[in-house]
Amino acid sequence: MAEASLQGKLIEFKGASLAVMTAHLRETEATRLADAMHMMLGGMPDFFAGEPAILDFAQLTSTPDRVDWTAIISLLRRYQVQPIGVRNLPDYLHDGARRANLAILGAESLSAERPVAPPPAAAPAPAPAPAPAPAPATVASPAVAANDSAAPQPGPQTLVVERPLRSGQQVYAKGGDLVLLGGMSPGSEVIADGCIHCYGPLRGRALAGARGDTSARIFSTHFGPELVSIAGVYRTFERGIPQSVAGRHAQVRLSGSDTQLTLEILPLQGD
Amino acid sequence: MARVIVVTSGKGGVGKTTTSASISSGLALRGFKTAVIDFDVGLRNLDLIMGCERRVVYDLINVVNGEANLNQALIKDKHCENLFILPASQTRDKDALSEEGVEKVLKELEHMGFDYVICDSPAGIEKGAVMALTFADEAIVVTNPEVSSVRDSDRILGILQSKSRRAIEGREPVKEHLMVTRYSPKRVEEGEMLSYKDVQELLRVPLIGVIPESDDVLQASNQGTPAIHLKDSDVATAYQDVVARFLDEDRPLRFVAYEKPGILKRLFGGK
C-alpha cells in the first residue's frame, strides 16, 4: 500500500547546498601535479576519503593549449578526491572538461567562498609528511563529516558537542565557533570557521579559522593535541607537547604577522 | 523487554568472546533468561568457549535466511538452565548478515521471553561489528591495558554513537560500560602496562570491571567452560563482580593492586 503512494515519485529533485572542497590548481601538467601531491600526501593516499572537489583554475600560472583531463582526474582519484566540476577555466578548455564529465561552474556557483587568501604558511615545526593545512574553503565536506560523525548538521552559529568526540569522528562548525563539552580523543578531528573551545582533554586534531580567519583561537582546559591549526598555519607535536602547556589550560593563537602559532597558558581565576 | 547488550572492542583477541560467555552465564545463573549470539560469522568461536560445538546444527545465518526457526537453532547451555546459544555460521561470511534479518531474530527472542540478549561482536569496525551493535541498548567495551587497544575501543565507541539504532533514531544513547581485561597489576606497577585508571581516563566511560590476566582463561577455553564457572579463580570472581555491577549492585574493585610476593612465597613458589 505504501508502494502505491510512492508510485508517483520514484525520483524527486530538490535544491540542496553542499559544503565542498575546492582544489586550486596552478598547473595542469599531470606529472608535476603528481609530484606536488606526493610531496604533500605521500604517506596518506586515503587522506581525502572520497571527498568531492571542484577544480578551480583562477590561479593558473600559464595557460595551456590543452589539458589532459583523464590524467588529472585519475591522479586525484588516486588520492580519493572526486572531481565534480571546474570553475574559472578559460572558455576554450570547456569542451574538454565537459567531455571528461566535469560540470562547468560559474564563479557565482560557489556562494560561500571567500576571496582567495595567500597560501598557508609553512609549518613552524618540521614534519616529514605533514597534513596539508586546510586552505580557505577547504572545509569538511559532508562525505567526510558523515564518516561516523555523531555531529549534528553544521549550522551557522556556535556548535556545541556534549559527548566525548571519539577516534575517527569529525565535526565541522560551519561559519562559527565549536564548543566541546566532553573533550576529544586522539584520532578525532574538529574544524571550525571560528574558535574552538574544548572543556576537557584536547587530544585529536583541532583546526580553527578554517576559512582563513586569523583571529580565531583554540582554547582548551587540558592541552594535548595531535595537531593544531589556525587559518591554515599548523603545528604538529612530534617531539611532544611543550612542558609549559601540556595537560594544562592553554590557548593557541596566531601572532607576529599571522605566521606564528603561539601556545600559552590561560591565566584562569580561581585556579 | 529484552535488553540487548553488545560486547565489543574494535581490536581482536582482547577477550570479547570470553566476556560474552561469562557475562551471559552470570546473568543466567541469576535467573534471567539469556541468549548469547555469536556475530563472528565465518570465525565461529563462541560455541567452543561454551563447549557446545558438537551440538551445532543450525546457526544465526540459517535463522536470518529463514532456513531454520529460532527454536531449532538455539542451543541450550550445559551449565545454566536459562542460557541459550545462537552460534555463528562457519561457512558463510559477514555479508550474509542483514539489518532486517538481525532485527527479526532479536524481535523473536523478545517474543520468546528472553530478558537479556548478549551479542558477541567480531573484531574490526566492518559489517559484522556494526551489525552486532546496531540494536544494542547497552555496550560492554572490552579493552586491554595497552594503547592500541584503547584507541580501537575509542573508535568503536564513536561508531556506537553514530551507527546504533538508538543514535540514528535520536533515542537515549547506548549505555556504555568499560571493561579492562588481561590486567596484570605487576606489569602496571613496573610501568609496562597502562593502569585501569589511565584507560578510564583516556576513554571516559564508566568502569564495570577489571579482569586479571590469568592462565585460567586459556584453560577454561580449552575445556569449553565459561571462565565464570571456574572454582577458586580470580577471573571467575572478577566476572561475578562484573555481573553484579551490571545489575546495579555495589562491588569494590578487586585484583587491581599488586602485592609483592613474600620471601616464603618466592622460595616455595605457589600461586
Automatic annotation (TrEMBL), chain A:
The segment(s) forming the Septum formation inhibitor MinC C-terminal domain are 160-257
Segments carrying the region annotation (Disordered) are 114-158
Keywords from the UniProt entry = Cell cycle, Cell division, Septation
Q: Where is the composition biased (Pro residues)?
A: 116-135
Q: Where is the composition biased (Low complexity)?
A: 136-152
Q: Which family does it belong to?
A: Belongs to the MinC family.
Q: Provide the assembly information.
A: Interacts with MinD and FtsZ.
Role: Cell division inhibitor that blocks the formation of polar Z ring septums. Rapidly oscillates between the poles of the cell to destabilize FtsZ filaments that have formed before they mature into polar Z rings. Prevents FtsZ polymerization.
What is the official name of this protein in its record? Probable septum site-determining protein MinC
Organism, scientific name: Zoogloea dura
TrEMBL record, chain B:
Q: Matching InterPro entries, A to Z?
A: AAA_dom, MinD, MinD_FleN, P-loop_NTPase, ParA/MinD_ATPase
Asked whether the UniProt record includes Nucleotide-binding among its keywords, one would answer yes
Organism taxonomic ancestry = Bacteria, Pseudomonadati, Pseudomonadota, Betaproteobacteria, Rhodocyclales
Describe the protein's quaternary organization and the partners it interacts with. Answer: Interacts with MinC and FtsZ.
Q: Which residues form the AAA domain?
A: 3-154
A single GO molecular-function term is: ATP binding
Which family does the entry's similarity section mention?
Answer: Belongs to the ParA family. MinD subfamily.
The UniProt annotation places ATP binding at K11, G12, G13, V14, G15, K16, T17, T18
An example GO BP is:
negative regulation of cell division
Task: Provide the alphabetized UniProt keywords.
Answer: ATP-binding, Cell cycle, Cell division, Nucleotide-binding, Septation
Which Gene3D superfamilies would you find in this protein's record? P-loop containing nucleotide triphosphate hydrolases (3.40.50.300)
Provide the function of this protein: ATPase required for the correct placement of the division site. Cell division inhibitors MinC and MinD act in concert to form an inhibitor capable of blocking formation of the polar Z ring septums. Rapidly oscillates between the poles of the cell to destabilize FtsZ filaments that have formed before they mature into polar Z rings.
* Signal peptide span: none
Q: Does the keyword Iron apply?
A: no
Which gene carries the instructions for this protein? minD
What superkingdom does the record give?
A: Bacteria
Q: What is this protein called?
A: Septum site-determining protein MinD
Q: Which GO cellular component terms, listed alphabetically, does the Swiss-Prot or TrEMBL entry include?
A: cytoplasmic side of plasma membrane; cytosol
**One Pfam family for this entry, by name?**
AAA_31
